């Protein structure tokens, strides 16, 4: 049954709760698709499989060392991971360099010590190519994709977002129980 939502638009009761920042809103991807495992390298250079975790919501944050907004976004994701690590899996994927030392220095400068960090400068997980598209699209940095408890990519939000905000928490709860 449709109803009038917070922004005055008609919504279905089955729609997820809205989540937005001052500049961006959580954007649904329809139809949703399953996140397929992809092998990336971690900060030690070890090949690591990034895959959905059955029964657990996952956020995949795409960022770059040259990105100013990422300097705001990554510490908020670090806080989310520390507060909700048992309920939400958070992985931050550096998209711009294979230079692990540069990425480590960037993260140390931001006091990021707990987030799972992977590297994908080749664009295996995400890119903006129309000729060789990846599973996720980079519309800019930072961008965070939400994968639901069933392993499906449900949507994304661009820019720095506070996932500990009440509306973000409602969105995470919605997808953890769907």
Description:
By secondary structure, the chain is α/β, with parallel strands linked by helices. The protein has three helices and twelve strands; from the N terminus they run ββββββαβαβββββα. The strands form three sheets. It has an eight-stranded mixed beta sheet with strand order 3-12-11-6-7-8-4-5. A two-stranded antiparallel ribbon has the order 1-2. β11 (143-147) and β12 (152-158) form a beta hairpin. It is globular.
Describe the SSE topology.
Elements: E1 2-4, E2 10-12, E3 27-34, E4 38-42, E5 47-50, E6 57-63, H1 70-84, E7 88-94, H2 100-109, E8 116-119, E9 126-127, E10 136-137, E11 143-147, E12 152-158, H3 166-176
Tell me the overall shape: globular
Number of strands: 12
Estimated helix fraction: 10-25%
Average of the residue pLDDT scores: 90
SS strand fraction: 25-35%
Helical segment tally?
Answer: 3
Widest sheet, order of strands: 3-12-11-6-7-8-4-5
* Biggest beta sheet attributes: 8 strands, mixed
Radius of gyration: 16 Å
């Amino acid at each position: 049954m449709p109803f009038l939502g917070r922004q005055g638009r008609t919504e279905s009761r089955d729609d997820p709760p809205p989540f937005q920042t001052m500049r961006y809103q959580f954007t649904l991807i329809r139809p949703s698709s399953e996140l397929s495992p992809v092998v990336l390298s971690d900060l030690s250079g070890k090949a690591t499989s990034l895959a959905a975790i059955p029964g657990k919501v996952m956020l995949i944050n795409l960022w770059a060392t040259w990105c100013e907004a990422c300097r705001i976004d990554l510490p908020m994701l670090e806080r989310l991971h520390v507060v909700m690590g048992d309920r939400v899996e958070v992985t931050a994927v550096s998209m711009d360099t294979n230079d692990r030392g540069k990425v480590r220095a960037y993260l140390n400068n931001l006091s990021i010590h707990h987030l799972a960090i992977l590297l994908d400068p080749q664009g295996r997980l995400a890119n903006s190519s129309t000729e060789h598209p990846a599973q996720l699209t980079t519309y800019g940095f930072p961008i965070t994709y939400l994968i639901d408890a069933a392993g499906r990519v449900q949507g994304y939000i661009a820019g720095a977002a506070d996932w500990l905000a009440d509306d973000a928490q409602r969105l995470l709860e919605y997808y953890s129980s769907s």
